[in-house]
Amino acid sequence: MTKRQAKPASERQSARRATSERAIERVPRGGKRKGKGGVQREADFVVIGAGSGGVAAARRAAAHGARVVLIERDAIGGTCVNRGCVPKKMLSYGGTLAAILSGCLSHTGGHEDWSDAIVRVNAEMARLHVAYTHRLQDAGVELLHGEATVTAPDQVQVGAETIHARRILVATGARPQTLPVPGGELAGTSDDVFTWQSLPASVVVIGGGYIAVELASILSRYGVKVEVLVRESRLLERFDHEIAAALAEALAAKGVRLHFHAEVTLLNQANGAIDVCYRQDGNGNGNGGGEGGKDRIHTVRAQAALAAIGREPQWEGLGLAALGVEKAEKGGIRVDRSFRSRVRSIHAIGDAIDGLHLTPVAAAQGRWLADRLFGRRGDRADFDTVPTAVFCDPAIGSVGLTEHQAIEAAGKAERIESVVRRFVSLENRFAGSEQASMVKLVVNARSGRVLGAHMMDNAAPEIIQALAVALRLGVKLSHLRTTVQLHPTVAEELFG
């Protein structure tokens, strides 16, 4: 019996009803007055963008008594709720179920159905849309749906409405970068995956960052033949090199074909498929290889192609440049330490500025800014010790310095010690898999202080979140080794 057959019909129907219901997008508002240019109103704080950062800032400012207007042109929740963290992780859970059913329980012939997974994802997104709106309404935030234009340092236009604001916050997030090669428009993005009602038999994923890795891992677990074209010499350049190498081996063992040193040059549609041409030098050492000499042009054909080459801040269409707001080095709004732009009344946070583009970072920035502008001076989050994860299979969790970063900071390699452990978890042994997990601690050799912790295991994200607190408090390797372990767990491998 498949998962679809086993799922009660009533549950599937309720999920579809929740998906089809339109989320509440407009909160009743007052205080409007007619002006020459249409409806006008006064506000203390106008927030453009109802993603994680914008919602957090709006709610916190309203809690301090500010009159807050939150403007969103799309669905509430931003990238995280609609095209990122939430649907991605739910699909990853479904992919894990698919792997279990096709492996450990292969005799049943069961598998996770993509269309059912999408129904569940959409139902959860609809629930979150309603929940976010109700929370904003309870906090006293007025929510407008539409395109915003900043027409003056203290004025925002939304349709026929003009809002005069003491402070303006830009929290408009980021969008996927398009592939800048001939035929690049043939490649979809991570946004498109969440709209698929059925899966192609094969996909070429272009990119080697965490979005590319997650897409490749998720799709392969649903039975899609996946090839990954990585321009660099390794996956996940911002993560520890040993963890990244171990993940490459794990993905290859699961059937994902990796091509390194692969620079995409052309996409072409032919016979209902997409040909992706790429140049690869002689150092290409992925499954695709670089054999046959340097700088040869190779072609891989698949039913679909996905570009996961990064994301870029999206704020250019708001009219900010005309007011003197400047662009930073990586394309975000240039802000100071207080998230204030060159125009004193205009602030920006989250993916709209350069820095760490992570949901919890944007939310922490938004809450701190609202505290600073409208309430007490809140405690600033520690943005130097930010845990992060890659939700692939096996998952990656990381916090603190990588080995290379630690050596660079210390000045000499001998000042840094690395402790690496590889093991096969009970979960994998039960499933009949020899897939190894990995733990790596980066330590100051003299003081014993742990500078970084990196894990590859499906339990890694949850473990690393807790370990982030220990790193902030200055945990030492001796502390870990003298702590009694919880057995049998994956976490006990951290303690020696």
Draw up the topology in text.
Elements lengths: L2 H4 L2 H12 L12 E3 L2 E11 L3 H12 L4 E5 L5 H6 L1 H18 L11 H26 L2 E4 L2 E5 L2 E4 L2 E10 L3 E3 L13 H4 L8 E5 L3 H12 L3 E5 L11 H13 L3 E3 L2 E9 L2 E8 L15 E7 L1 E4 L3 E3 L32 E3 L10 H16 L13 E3 L5 E5 L2 H8 L5 E8 L2 H5 L6 E8 L5 E7 L3 H13 L4 H5 L15
Parallel strand pairs: 2-3, 2-7, 3-4, 7-17, 9-10, 9-15, 10-11
Antiparallel strand pairs: 1-2, 5-6, 6-7, 8-16, 12-13, 13-14, 18-19, 19-22, 20-21, 21-22
Helix pairs in contact: 2-6, 3-6, 3-10, 5-6, 5-8
Characterization of this structure:
Helix content is about 30%, strand content about 25%. It has about 500 residues and is an alpha/beta fold. It has 3 domains: about 5-175 and about 310-375, 3-Layer(bba) Sandwich (FAD/NAD(P)-binding domain); about 185-305, FAD/NAD(P)-binding domain, CATH 3.50.50; about 395-495, FAD/NAD-linked reductase, C-terminal dimerisation domain (Enolase-like, domain 1). The strands form 5 sheets. Strands 1, 2, 3, 4, 5, 6, 7 and 17 form an 8-stranded mixed sheet that branches. Strands 18-19-22-21-20 form a 5-stranded antiparallel sheet, with helices on both faces. A hairpin with a 2-residue loop joins strand 12 (about 260-270) and strand 13. Helix 3 (about 50-65) packs parallel to helix 10. The radius of gyration is 24 Å and the shape is globular. It starts with a helix and ends in a 15-residue tail after the last helix.
